[in-house]
Amino acid sequence: MATIFPFPHTSSAAPATDENRLSAWRLTRFSAIAVPVAAAGLPLGVYLPPVYAQDHGLSLTTIGLIFLVGRLWDALLDPFMGVLSDRTRSRFGRRKPWIAAGGLLFAGSAWFLFFPPVQVSAAYLAIVLFFFYLGWTAVQIPFLAWSGEVSGRYHERTRVATFQTVVTASALLLTLILPTLADQLRPGDGGLKLALMGGLVAVTILPALVLTLTAFKEPPAPASIAPREPLGRVVRAVLGDRLLLRVLGSDFAVTLGQNIRAALIVFYVTFYMGRPEWAAGLFLFQFVFGVLAGPIWLKIGYRLGKHRTAVAGELVQVAINLGLVLVAPDNMTLLLGLTLAQGLAQGSGNLMLRAIVADVADKHRLETGNDRAGLYYSVFSLAGKSATAVAIGIALPLVAWLGFDPKTSNSPEALQGLALVFALGPAIAHALSAWLIAGFPLDETRHAEIRRELDAREATLVPAE
User: Fold this and answer.
1) Is 175 within 8 Å of 42 (Cβ atoms)?
2) Selection from 86, 90, 94 nearest residue 229 by Cα
3) Which of 94-108, 285-299, 311-325 has the lowest mean pLDDT?
4) Are 249 and 212 within one domain?
5) Residue 401: Cβ-neighbour burial (10 angstroms; 0-12, 13-18, 19+)
6) What Å distances lie between residue 9 and 28, 85, 89, 242, CA to CA?
7) What does the alpha-carbon distance between residue 119 and residue 427 come to, in Å, rounded to a whole number?
8) What single-letter DSSP state applies at residue 413?
9) Smallest Cα–Cα separation from 330: which of 264, 273, 252?
10) Pair (150, 280) in one structural domain
């Protein structure tokens, strides 16, 4: 049985106070790596494909195939990286070496991705994306696992996730502003947009790595490594954890709803509302208020607990998306109001569910003696990525089946079908997310008991020399 390691703070059973909370400054430093990661992720699916098609002559079919293979590669990497970081032993820690090495690989490949030469081949894009996703995963999965280890406290884990959410939302807001500025300088210049966003990644990646890696010390790893298990047994252990499956299902539904909305918002605003000039601005408007969402839901989480707050956030999302059914093409005011509310509710479910994963990993470690936090977070990440792909695979064919075609004039029935999918698709997905996580048994009281048992077991174990 693996030795249980303590968290570097006071007992998790004690209530959090101003004296023993993690400092806001250190949590902000720790979250810094989210800036370049978010700045690179947004243009990857929105701005980069058109630039490579229009400015570098690659066909949309070729680009689409390369990105599809790249996303599959990215998804396959997640569980392997989770297991590798769980099993790593070094004097620098388990997570830090992967984040440092992955960050450098991410930085180098992002440079070639955002600042390509004049002549670009399909092989160039495929190779750069191969290393880009490898570096991204090597940063993301160990960082998520480390986030759950920074504190063993129930509510402090929510604070850690909240700071990451706020930093990510701020980075996305800044990234969305850059192409807006580019349109003012040189309208329609996709290369300039890509260069500005790539410049943000290049300028922030190294300082962000330093800030994140020096924010906290990693807690000591288990003194011994559990024997290497067959892949099938590990998969069965993960899939056999019913609490984890509920969290994964709930997050899949959250992300599905968010990405159905994201996939259709430009079409909805441009064609149904008839306001193409608002297509990008509405997304930016949502993110302005999205920066405020994290602290709001953190306060609610203190009162209700994580799973109840996740349910509340998802039901708010259901109400907002059902409200979109009432939006007529001439009622921009109502749409703006619902978009503001969407921003304030943004990411509430994701935030709480991410913090819950660490609690579920604690329960698994108590029951089995195996520390699989990295693996658990990798599967959590994989669920979100799968939902992103499924959302596009559902939303676009569905609106096309209902008669919508952005290349031609559309009938009122086709536009109404687009509006209904835009409203009801996310509403159904968020309702499913709330249902899956409702009544979740691992609350603050139960988690405190688990942490006490883990701490007691730690006290009886002698670390290996």
Assistant:
1) yes
2) 86
3) 285-299
4) no
5) exposed
6) 18, 22, 22, 29
7) 45
8) H
9) 273
10) no
pLDDT tens column, 152-190 = 888 898 899 889 888 988 888 888 888 778 777 777 677
Alpha carbon of 321 to those of 52, 373, 421, 444: distances in Å?
Answer: 34, 34, 10, 31
Q: What range does the domain containing 358 cover?
A: 237-465
Indicate the helix (H) or strand (E) that contains 124.
helix 122-147
Answer yes or no: are the C-beta atoms of 40 and 201 closer than 8 Å.
Answer: yes
As a whole number of angstroms, the distance between CA 448 and CA 456 comes to 12
Terminal Cα-to-Cα distance of the chain (whole angstroms): 16
CB 284 within 8 A of CB 344: no
CA distance linking residue 137 with residue 106, whole number of Å = 9
- CA–CA separation, 21 vs 16, rounded Å? 6
pLDDT of residue 14: 42
Highest mean pLDDT among 18-22, 150-154, 235-239: 150-154
What would the two tokens of residue 230 be? 């067959």
Per the structure block, which two tokens stand in for 379? 């599967």
For the segment 376-410, what is each residue's pLDDT rounded down to a tens digit?
Answer: 888 888 888 788 778 877 888 888 899 988 778 88
Contact of 41 with 31, CB cutoff 8 Å: no
Residues in the chain: 465
Contact indicator for 428, 274 with CB cutoff of 8 Å: no
- Is the Cα torsion angle 24, 294, 81, 137 positive or negative in sign? negative
Assess contact for 169 and 290: CB atoms under 8 A.
yes
Residues 312 and 212 in one domain: no
Q: For residue 80, what is the enclosing H or E element?
A: helix 60-87
3-state secondary structure 331-359: CHHHHHHHHHHHHHHCCHHHHHHHHHHHH
Q: What share of the chain is helix, strand, coil (3-state, %, to 5)?
A: 75, 0, 25
Task: Establish if 2 belongs to a structural domain.
Answer: no
Q: How far are the Cα atoms of 5, 15, 34, 38 from residue 97, in angstroms, in the given order?
A: 19, 33, 17, 21
Opening angle at CA 29, ends 25 and 33, nearest 5: 155
Verify that 241 and 189 share a domain, yes or no: no
Whether 389 and 346 map to the same domain: the answer is yes
Q: State the Cα–Cα distance between residues 325 and 264, nearest whole angstrom.
A: 15
Residue 228 lies inside a defined structural domain of this protein: no
**Structure tokens that stand for 381 in this block:** 């990440």
Residue 326 in domain: yes
| Residue 6 is assigned to a structural domain of this protein | no
